[in-house]
Amino acid sequence: MRNLLTLCFAALCLPVLTAAHAEPRIVGGRSATPGSMPWLVAVADAKPPAKPLYDRQFCGGALIADNWVLTAAHCVEGTRPESLQVVAQIYDLTKDSGQVSAVRRKIMHPNYNRFSMNADIALLELATPLDAIPIPVLQQNLALTGQWLSIAGWGSIDKAGNNYAEQLRETEVPIVSNATCQRAYGRLDKITGNMLCAGFKEGGRDSCQGDSGGPALVEINGRWLLAGVVSFGEGCARANYYGIYTRVSRFAAFLHEYVDFDGNRLADVNQDGRVNAADAIDKNQALQDEFDAWLEDCWKTRSDCGDVDGDKNIDWRDVLRRNQYMDGLWQAWTTEYWQPLRD
Q1: Which of 53, 69, 264, 270 is deepest in the core (most CB within 10 A)?
Q2: pLDDT score at 43
């Protein structure tokens, strides 16, 4: 079954023939911890800038280098780079301003097929490098069946796809084999080796409309790695249908053609050529300085930027939430970059 959807970005509206289930797609999830996923970004319509981010965000993405975002090709098909905007370090779409960058270049995988959704992957080169922690990419084709896939986004939180989240949400779903996934979909879709399937047979948890392009992570040897990109599925969290993700490891060559993966640069904070305790001390101090600056400039002055939880009151709860956010940044940096590379 095929439906005609209309994708609108800025003043451009494109009719796109695509699968009825290929929805820009966290149902059955929970509120995420602020700062716990610094690599997760919102992909939004750049115009009009005065429009709230909540109304402009249409997909997610993963920061894989300070100037590169990985997302789904169907998210940016038919768009111009100048019509796109990437926002990092954001939790609440109605309140937070985050770090904003324009998009310099859009690179869709040349084998992307809008009908089969094969090779549903794209890169966005940012005009301004972001001061956020990228997520390492899983580049080996490992057997992942049975492992948990962690997904997050600002998409719809109900199966109907009508109730969009203001604050970032997350959940986990088990990875199933492609053969199991193919049996579930039957003739509806061809599940290729470039795809990864996850979910419960009985449904209940899934990515949904608005989550497309967002990161899907697996934990390998205590380290979180980007294994998938939210792609499509039959509705949201429906029984007998699994969510389908682009299998990132199958596109390692495509990513390396454009992206310089330099984890050592992120771990070596003091740039002395070594990754050791001195870098951890410097990183901790930098995060403390950032927190202190927020405390002085935002919270003590009762400025809007001091209302971290968006409840219209600036009080001790905002200090706790901001501290929680900074702790998330610290944990992410130590786990993903410092510990694996330290001397």
Answers
A1: 69
A2: 95
pTM surpassing 0.85? Answer: no
Q: What is the pLDDT of residue 209?
A: 67
Is 212 one of the annotated active-site residues of the chain?
yes
Task: Give the torsion sign (CA, 216, 210, 39, 308).
Answer: negative
- 120 is an active site residue: yes
231 flagged as catalytic: no
**Tokens (6 digits) for 30:** 């929970």
CA atoms within a 13 Å half-sphere pointing along the CA-CB vector of 338:
19
Catalytic residue among 66, 92, 96, 120: 120
pLDDT given at position 15: 30
3-state helix, strand, coil in the chain (%, to 5): 25, 30, 45
Domains of the chain: 2-22+35-126 (2.40.10.10), 148-256 (2.40.10.10), 263-341 (no CATH)
Q: Which residues of the chain have pLDDT under 50?
A: 1-25
